[in-house]
Amino acid sequence: MATNTEPTTGDSMDSKDYDYDLIVIGGGSGGIALAREAAKFEKRVAMLDFVKPTVHGSTWGLGGTCVNVGCIPKKLMHQAALIGQAMKDSEKFGYTVEPSFAWETCIQSIRDYIGSLNFGYRTTMREENVKYINAYGSLLDRHRVKCVNKRGEENIISGLRICIATGGRPRVPDVPGKDLCITSDDLFLRRTAPGKTLVIGASYVALECAGFLAGMGYDVTVMVRSILLRGFDQEMATKIGENMETYHNIKFLRGFVPQEFTNELEGDTKRIRVNATGSGSNAGQAHSDVFDTVLVATGRDPCTSGIGLDTVGVKLDDKGFILSDNEKTNVWSIYGIGDALSGKPELTPTAIQAGRLLARRLYGESTLACDYENVATTVFTPLEYGCCGLSEEDAIARHGEDNVEVYHDHVLPLELVIPRSEEFGFVKVITLKPEQERVIGFHILAPNAGEITQGYGVAMKCGLTKEQLDAAIGIHPTCAENPTTMATTKRSGKELKSGGC
Questions:
Q1: What angle do CA 354, 385, 487 make, to 5 degrees?
Q2: Which among 92, 292, 336, 407 could bridge 195 via Cys, Cβ 3.0 to 4.6 Å?
Q3: Position 6 in a domain
Q4: At 275, which CATH number?
């Protein structure tokens, strides 16, 4: 992309000529982190946040997607599902439990917690001298922002610099009857139980929602057009699908896409009929079924339209994401962080890190930029998938098959041996042979994979090699020890065998 241009004639570099030193548009994790960090340098900071309701009227408070309808409620609902599974497993350990699940109670507990986070953010903004404006912001020029509140009242504010931190929202296919469907923005605020549910999509959001809904006892089907978890390691993605189908009662309808959604009455109950057609090898086939809830999770689009980026000439990619270099756009006074940026991980911690580091570069003496490589993450499916670095496909594409060595092994979680002895996990370590087998990819499917992956991610930042992994002594008996004892490579063709100590 073009280099961030220098100020032009008519642009004042004196912050006194503006209402604020920095205006942040977007009150999610990244925007809040940037605003708070900038305020520490005694800068005048304003942060705008406004949530457009979904077609079902869902809206939420300060904190963005992660806090309100993303990471936080997702992890808590995942935990609710794990508790339900643990109660079923407990019988084999000698307990007598008769579990029942109340959706309303679960949702209320989660919303109460999130409400406390919303309140905490508002309080923190006030205490740290960040001006919080609950209004929709759009650029009028390189320095002025039009603010429109929920009553339609307009106000214009100015800032020497402006940062776009608007994140993204779920993408809904343009199919007749699409307004009958909900997205994750609605699910986490839903007050009534979803019942029999169709999840459309193969993203991590789709699989996570399908997983916890099934764990809570609901009948769940996942409609997949092609592959699971595009962009992730495909061997791991296949194993996740197999695990969900085999051990967690989740049905997969593969090779189909929705064509129409219609209301259908069964007595006094309104349900949704889904008509679908086959894709790929299923071309020409048709499928129809009725569900209580249809959840669409086919990806997310950036919130970059309608906010004036075209007015000031900020460059976007072909999907509407902001092109940037170290969070700088091609317009010198405009910056961007978080999920709205092109080619960056759409993860809360990266947005927070990028926001803090940007503030330190702008107002402190730091030159440190956000490192988007080797960012560890986890997909919270029933058996969690943690990963860091390159997938096997990407490693081979980038470095060549002859330069890549892949170590792999089964993982047998001891906690599952008694109740579910057949449910195995899997681990894969991808190394770069010419660089002393430096670890360039780490993947594990196991309980608590997120907790395991974080440590290995730190090690990869430090240049972890296979020799160092082998020299480490694992904690026994844990799934985390498996990467320290791996000896079988894919190249060898040897059969994997699982055993005890």
A1: 110
A2: 292
A3: no
A4: 3.50.50.60
Compute the distance between CA of residue 30 and CA of residue 28 in angstroms, rounded to an integer.
6
Sign of torsion, CA 251 255 258 259? negative
Instruction: Indicate the pTM of the whole model.
Output: 0.95
Over residues 173-189, the pLDDT tens digits come to: 999 999 999 999 999 99
Q: Which two tokens stand for residue 302?
A: 């950036």
Q: Which tens digit of pLDDT belongs to each residue from 187-212?
A: 999 999 999 999 999 999 999 999 99
Find, among 213, 277, 273, 278, the residue nearest to 249 by Cα: 213
Domain span at 355: 15-77+103-170+301-363
Confidence at residue 3, expressed as pLDDT on a 0 to 100 scale = 53
Rounded to whole angstroms, the Cα distance separating 360 from 125 reads 18
- Catalytic site residues? 476
Peptide bond into 349 cis (omega under 30): no
326/286 same-domain check: no
- Collapsing DSSP states into helix, strand and coil, what is residue 2? coil
Is 135:155 a contact under the CB 8 Å cutoff? yes
Quick one: tokens of 244?
A: 């969900």
Spatial strand order of the sheet with 286-291 comes to 256-266, 269-278, 286-291
SS3 at position 486: coil
Stretch (H or E) spanning 99: none
